[in-house]
Amino acid sequence: MTQIQKRNNRRYFHYQKEILNTISEPASFITDKYRYVFVNNAFNDFFNKQTDKVIGKTPSEIWGEDNFKKNIAPQMDRALNGETVFFQYRGKMLDGKFKILEINYYPHYKPSGSIDGIIAITNDVTKQKHAEEALKESEARLKDLNETKDKLFSVIGHDLKGPLHNIVAFSELIEEQHGEYSREEIRKFNQLILQSAQSLSSLLDNLLSWSYSQTQSIKIFPQAILLHSIAEKCFDFLKQNAFQKEIRLINDVSPEMHAVADEKMITTVIRNLISNAIKFTDRGGKITVTATIVEDEIFVAIRDSGTGISKEKTELLFQSCGIQSSTGTEGEGGTGMGLIICKDFIEKNNGRIWVESELNNGSVFSFSLPVNF
């Protein structure tokens, strides 16, 4: 190569460096021997790496040997073979922060037409990609929420009819023909009205809880809560349902046992689980609430002597596809929505929920909660 050609090449490379210094994205020139010979000002700023700490180094020295061989070298080889390469790099930067980069490798041609290196231009798309991923998650959640809502309201519409019909029918009987019935008969009608009203109340409570939860309107107030006391309150609320089926409610939770959780949410969970147990337990059965502490968790179990659940159904109980109209041992209605709420509320309180059951051999619904803040 003549002196004039060498001088022209230097001028040409100097001109290219000046152009790369004008762009706002990090840019560098890497030779076909895998060595940095130029980085622009934006490169220094973005990677917090001074020019003299980069020039003459190889990408493997800057980014690490394993990372270079796995993620960078294959793309560089494509560019050195004449391809314009575009790829995304996800990983830790030189400062230890995780970023998502869009990297362009352009083959650099000498005046003779041969390739002597790569011009690399980088664009930080971390925020953009996180926003896109968040949007996809939001869209998927919204789709699932809409599907659940549609299924939920179709089931609720069906289950509202029964209790409402009972309330209206028995109220009309008492109003129109009260003189023809004995006090005992009227009392039985009133018990049926009460049972139907409680069923409606529970259904509407669950619907409101689910609505608040899905719209993020519900706020969590964790505190030390006494589980024996909560179970007693739920027994009081549901004692009429249990009495009518001659079901014994047993609270075996030690009075001093506590968990750290939102009291209203856990009350809703225990009430739903006991209500379900009553619904699917035969007349004369029993339901027992127990609790045990293991290290920093408390495990609460609601055990019934009911009809049990098949393995296929247990896998769907806590999913939106498990919402369906179901009938208790004496015709009680139900949607399965309560279990969806239980799972949501328990997980919001840093716990887990699960079920163990066999057909004709009862069920045990259990959940865990932390015992410390």
From TrEMBL:
Q: Which residues cross the membrane?
A: none
Q: Which residues form a coiled coil?
A: 128-155
- So what does this thing catalyse? ATP + protein L-histidine = ADP + protein N-phospho-L-histidine
Write out the GO MF terms: phosphorelay sensor kinase activity
EC? Answer: 2.7.13.3
Specify the domain of life of the species encoding this protein.
Bacteria
PAC domain residues: 80-137
Q: Where is the Histidine kinase domain?
A: 155-373
The name on file for this protein is histidine kinase
Classification of source organism = Bacteria, Pseudomonadati, Bacteroidota, Bacteroidia, Marinilabiliales
